[in-house]
Design brief:
Layout (H helix, E strand, L loop, with lengths): L1 H4 L7 H13 L10 H44 L11 H4 L4
Length: 98
């Protein structure tokens, strides 16, 4: 009997069905499973970047050692009075002597 006097007969029953239909029909977010292949690819990318960084650092170090050795040899030759034809397009010939 309480249902008769609660005013339930006046509410819209179809609105509840519409809301349920909306909840069912909306696009849920995709379920993302990170498989082992994806993790392996990411690990390969990180490893490749590390190797590239180490390779770049070693190239820079080798170039610095080469420049230092060249300067040392030039200084040694100049101290012994030996002159040689220098290239004019390299970095060593462009710098001013100190």
């Amino acid at each position: 009997m309480a249902a008769l006097f609660s005013g339930d007969e006046n509410r819209n029953v179809y609105a509840e069905d519409d809301y349920r239909a909306y909840l069912i029909s909306r696009n849920p977010p995709p379920i993302v499973h990170h498989s082992g292949a994806v993790r392996l690819k990411r690990l390969q990318v990180h490893a490749r970047r590390v190797v590239h960084g180490v390779d770049s650092a070693l190239h820079w170090l080798i170039a610095a050692l080469e420049r230092s050795k060249t300067r040392r040899i030039q200084r040694e030759l100049q101290l012994r009075g030996i002159r040689y034809a220098q290239r004019n397009d390299d970095d060593a010939s462009q710098r001013q002597p100190k």
